[in-house]
Amino acid sequence: MEDWNRQDEGEAEGLGLPPSEVSARAIHESNAATLLGLDADDAIIEAPRRMIPQSAIVMGFVVALAAGSLYLMRRAGDVEAPQTMIEQELLIEEALAQLQRAAGHTDTTPAQALSVAFDEADDVVRLFLDDPTSRQVPLKHVAKNPFRYAHLADEPDGTPNDGLAQISMAQQIRQQEKQQKQMILRDELGRMNLQTVMTGTAPMAMISDQVVREGDRMGSFMIASIKPRAVELVAEGNTYTLWMNEVN
Fold first, then answer.
1. Are residues 90 and 37 in the same domain?
2. Which label site among 132, 196, 230, 235 has the fewest CB atoms less than 10 Å from its CB?
3. 194 in a structural domain
4. Facing residues of 3 across strands?
């Protein structure tokens, strides 16, 4: 009992409470422990356990999920990386490894170390400077119609180019049309008959029983000028002269 009193006095001094309150508190805890089937000393000595906050558990779960997602994304990116990029990285890593090995040898000179490190420097530089367009088909060998190109490649040398042939054909067609128009105009001019010419301030002429003045149109022709014995006609940019009873 004296031990309990000394213990109560020590607890009272530590907690700043009167010894009577500490004794009452100890008796209450002892009774509660008896009801729960526990030893009195265990009830007094055992402290309540601290529980982890639910927010901390949720935060830890989110962090773990994010880390797992990043890891999976990185692995997926590594799998889908182009083979050329992987080869380039291997070459660079190999060059760096050679540089490190060369630096680790104490019996080699700096020149030898650089020589060992850059044995494949030309290959690395060539890899970065490689131009894939140099392996493409030259533009002069590219046709607008790839199926037509295969046909032209089988033709013997000396075959005229299709483009030039089309231009030449178009020129021939235009020349034929021009000649036909000239024939039609000359035929029409040959049927005209200059009967009378009257000069003066307002010259007039009678052609095939029709009185005309300068600027008038007659058939496909326009009257350009009226002279004492002739009339000048213009058609299709060409000038024709109609004489009395003759054509020049």
1. no
2. 132
3. yes
4. none
Q: How many angstroms separate the CA atoms of 189 and 187, rounded?
A: 5
- Residue corresponding to tokens 């010259």: 203
Residue for token digits 């006609």? 233
pTM of the model: 0.32
- Residues counted in the chain: 248
Domain assignment of residue 41, given as a range: 2-45
Taking alpha carbons only, the member of 219, 248, 235, 237 closest to residue 227 is: 248
* CA distances (Å), origin 25, targets 12, 22, 45: 11, 5, 13
Residue 155 lies in a domain: no
- 69-92 pLDDT, tens digit per residue, is 777 776 665 555 556 667 767 777
| Residue 179 predicted with pLDDT over 60 | yes
Q: Could you tell me the two tokens for 96?
A: 């760096």
- Report d(CA 236, CA 182) in Å as an integer: 9
